[in-house]
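Human:
Care to share another protein and its fold?

Assistant:
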Amino acid sequence: MMLKSLPLLFSFAVMLFAATPGQAQDADAGEKVYKKCKACHQVGPDAKHRTGPILNGVVDRAAASAEGYKYKKSIVAAAEQGLVWDEAQLMQYLSNPTQYLRAYLDNPKAKSAMTFKLKNEQEQRDVIAFLAAQSGDAVAKEDTAETTAKAEPQLSADEVVAAQVFTEEFLADPVNFEAGKEMWFAQCTHCHGYKAYPGKAPKLKPGKYTPEFVFKRVYKGFKKMPEWHETFSVDEIRQIVAYVKAPGFSP
């Protein structure tokens, strides 16, 4: 009987071993996940508070403790109860911030200012690993050349916008459509997607916009919308435009 059980035990061990790497943290993968956070949070030596606080040193830090940032009352209340952002707490918070605070505070009216939800547990682990590497004086992982290219320092924002020309060939290219679609669903739907309505951001009517107008709004930002040239390159923003202007666009 014992010999008959060995194959089953061996199969189980193999399955367990194979599953283990998927649970490991990957800071490099986390840097890619972090792109979803960059609209509101910055890291690195030159990080500044935006809609959300800077995230340098956030892992294992007391909640609501980033100097100079004005936190909402629910997160302050959680901090007063001793909340510390260890990995377990961060994973729960990232999954559903408001739901987490309501459970933590035992208050059904508690609310997080962060509406973004990161449901994938592996992505949670990876982005936490990336953030753990961002100490208070950490150097951002983007190299200087990439950062310089994204910021387009040799041209003003108006000059970059004025230089854009969108041909029918570019807009119809399926490569641009698919790349723009991927970036749209990774970032833009948090405010403009159908799940974000009502009140989060205006409902888009791309048929009324020229490609140049869409590029300008994405590149320079508008009112509460950030300047996306700090996150995406000019080429990437052009691909977002291609997706927004395509017949197959769906917010």
Remarks:
- Confidence is low (pLDDT under 50) at residues 1-22, 137-153.
- The chain has two domains: 27-132, 144-244.
